[in-house]
Every structure is written in C-alpha cells, then in structure tokens.
Design brief:
Blueprint: H1 2-17, H2 30-42, H3 59-73, H4 78-89, H5 104-137, H6 141-156
Transmembrane segments: 104-125
Function: Possible subunit of a heme lyase.
InterPro entries: C-type_cytochrome_biogenesis (IPR051263), CcmH/CycL/Ccl2/NrfF_N (IPR005616), CcmH/CycL/NrfF/Ccl2_sf (IPR038297), For-dep_Cytc_NO2Rdtase_NrfF (IPR017565)
Length: 157
C-alpha cells in the first residue's frame, strides 16, 4: 500500500510539471517584433480549422511562427513572406485572400447574392401591388357605395 501512495504522488507531480513550450524568439528590433506578430496574427494555421499562427498550439503553427519571425529579421517584406506561405500552403493560410481569377467567386459571390435577393424582393413587392390594384378594380358599385357610407360614418364620429 505504501508504493501506491508514492505512485499517486509521482503521477500528481508529473501532471503538474507538464507544460507547453513557449516561443522565445529574440527579434533584432522592436519594429521587427511588431511586424512579425502582426503577420503571424494575419496568417492561418494550415493544420487548425480557424486559428491564426499566434493562437494555435500545433507544432506546425509553432514552426511557421518561427519561420515568419526569422524572415522578418532577414529583412523580407510582408508580401514576400505572405507569398512564401501561400506558395507552400495555398490561399488557405490567408484570412484575406488576394483578389484574382481563382478567388473571384469568393469576393463577388456575396455581392451577387445580395443583388439577386434585392431583385427577387422587388419583383415580389411589385407583384403584390399589382394584385392589390386588380382586387380594388374588381369591387362592385354596390360595395363601393357601402364602403363610402362606412367611411363617412367613421369620419362623423
């Protein structure tokens, strides 16, 4: 029974000791640090569903973070870094994909749906107004006289 207590104690200590590694990258300047962190926030982890490189704990995201930091310190421009990442991992790594032939539907699709929806809505309203006008035109003379009489009574009150 004595060994059971020791094993339980060791397991508790081992669980407490487990920690996630922290990136300890030293940038050459504060500007590089700010630019590196901004780029890592704008790039999506290719392994995760919808996390940027900063928020993701996956090994792939860690490697890409460090690669972005190193490229920033090498003096590469933001466009060069983003081009490197998209060439290697595709447009998925960008939260805001470039406007080109491949992403045309992505950018113009919502506008097209809005225009189509507005057109359908206008046609519906127009048809409802035409139906209302036809119903008003089909009222008999007797019904018109009764309606006029009811309106006069309401105004007199």
């Amino acid at each position: 029974m004595k060994w059971f207590g020791r094993a339980a104690c060791l397991m508790l200590i081992a669980g407490a000791v487990h920690a996630t590694p922290i990136d300890t990258y030293e940038f050459k300047s504060q500007e590089n640090k700010e630019r590196g962190l901004q780029l890592a926030n704008e790039l999506r982890c290719p392994q995760c569903q919808n996390q940027n490189l900063i928020d993701s704990n996956s090994p792939v995201a860690r490697d890409l973070r460090l690669k972005v930091y190193a490229m920033v310190d090498e003096g590469k421009s933001n466009d060069e870094i983003v081009t490197y990442m998209t060439d290697r991992y595709g447009d998925f790594v960008r939260y805001r994909p470039a406007f080109d032939n491949r992403t045309l539907v992505l950018w113009l699709g919502p506008v097209a749906f809005a225009v189509i929806g507005l057109g359908v809505g206008l046609l519906f309203v127009r048809s409802q107004r035409q139906k209302g006008a036809k119903v008003a035109a089909n009222i008999s003379d007797a019904d018109r006289e009764r309606l006029a009489k009811v309106l006069k009574e309401k105004q007199g009150q």
